[in-house]
Amino acid sequence: MTDDIATAGDPAPDEGFLxxxxxxxxxxxxxxxxxxxxxxxxxxxxxNPCIVRLANSWIIMNPGGGPxxxxxxxxxxxxxxGDTTSIFLNPRVADVQxxxxxxxxxGAEFLTPPIDRGAEIRCYLRDPDGYLIxxxxxxxxxxxxxxxx
Length: 149
Known about the structure:
The protein contains 2 helices and 7 strands, in the order E-H-E-E-E-H-E-E-E. By secondary structure, the protein is α+β, with helices and mostly antiparallel strands. It folds into 2 domains: about 55 residues, 2,3-Dihydroxybiphenyl 1,2-Dioxygenase, domain 1; about 70 residues, Signal recognition particle alu RNA binding heterodimer, srp9/1 (2-Layer Sandwich), CATH 3.30.720.110. A hairpin with a 3-residue loop joins strand 5 and strand 6.
C-alpha cells in the first residue's frame, strides 16, 4: 500500500478519463483481501475508500452511507445477495482454466467450472459480499463466432 496515490499508478488520469468500479461492502478488510490476495490486485489505498488496482482497472470499496450534499436524497446500500443481479465485474483472461485453478486454490468459490459457450469459455464466482464476477476467455469470438441468442 502506498500513501501517495499519485505514485501508485492512478486512478487519477492526467487527461481524459478512466473508469473505476465502486462497490459497497460490508467489511472493507475482507473485500480488500479478496480482491488483492485471491484475485491478485494491488492495494493502492487501504481504506476511506479502499482502492485496489486489478489488472488495468480499479475497484473502489467503501461501506454504504446516507445522502451527502453532492447526492441529496440518495443512499448507498450494500448489495443483497441472492439469485438476481443487475451488474457484475467481467474480467477477461488469457487462460480461464488457469485462473479457475489459481483462484479456487486461494479460496474462491465458483458457481461452476469453466464452460465452453462457443464464443467464449466462462465461469462465475461471487465475492465476499455476494457480487457476481464473470471470468471469461474469448475463443470463438476471436474468429467471428458470437454467442447464441
